[in-house]
DNA sequence: CGGAATCCCTTCTGATACTG
DNA sequence: CAGTATCAGAAGGGATTCCG
């Protein structure tokens, strides 16, 4: 398991937050583009693949599929293509039989993983709180 | 526009990253639950609403709809209900005519907003890089 | 092994119309 | 104003089959 550059990038990003009024406090044309990018990147499978690759460094297609519990081969392929197109992962095809394809995060992908790291931690820390809120909401409505 | 607690929570969370090998380096049962929670919370509209409410403090239904460019009234209602159920927002109904309903982030919601902040900044910083990667990919595939 | 292609069902999402 | 209800098209996503 590789040692990830999670702490430094996240902390430096976090520091820069203090310089801005809000995360998207910038010109409106850019804001629309940012929203679009967020929409594509804030995807369940993208986030999970990002994390698995961040943990393991480099994985083959099937290995990746096993690590990402619950994903179908179709969605794995689809998501990986999208991530490759967006510059998040590199896809290396080895000319051997049986074929071997390795996936690895690019620097861009690793930086997104680092940015998402805060959300993972949040999810772990607040699992119980969210569940409690749901129960309360459902019994009040139910 | 309220002054948000973005810097402190994000930095403290980021600091805690150094204590862990990876963001989900914990027991497998919890990991599945975390994945599920991520799947629900890593949603385009949830993220954008979270950010708009973080910036504005408290908003009425229609005001919120105007701030969230491109959302339909249906998705706005749906997403807000979900967020209310998950404990992210409070929904305050004023018994007046015409009706008035205010939405505001809870502490839980604000903390998620803080966690997402790194992703927003990432998206702003890497907009050009992603776009360039897409162009390169598309011309190569062509 | 690492896909691509197809089928088929479900969910998402926007538009429109209606209500307390 | 702040929704609910309904409909229809688009996209998401699983299962299966086939190929280099």
TrEMBL record, chains A, B:
InterPro entries reported for this sequence: ArsR-like_HTH, HTH_HxlR, WH-like_DNA-bd_sf, WH_DNA-bd_sf
Gene Ontology annotations of biological process type: regulation of DNA-templated transcription
Keywords on record: DNA-binding, Transcription, Transcription regulation
Gene3D superfamilies recorded: Winged helix-like DNA-binding domain superfamily/Winged helix DNA-binding domain (1.10.10.10)
SUPFAM superfamilies with a match to the protein in the record: Winged helix' DNA-binding domain
Residue span, HTH hxlR-type domain: 26-131
GO molecular-function terms, A-Z: DNA binding
Signal sequence extent: none
Protein name: Helix-turn-helix transcriptional regulator
Annotated organism of origin: Lichenifustis flavocetrariae
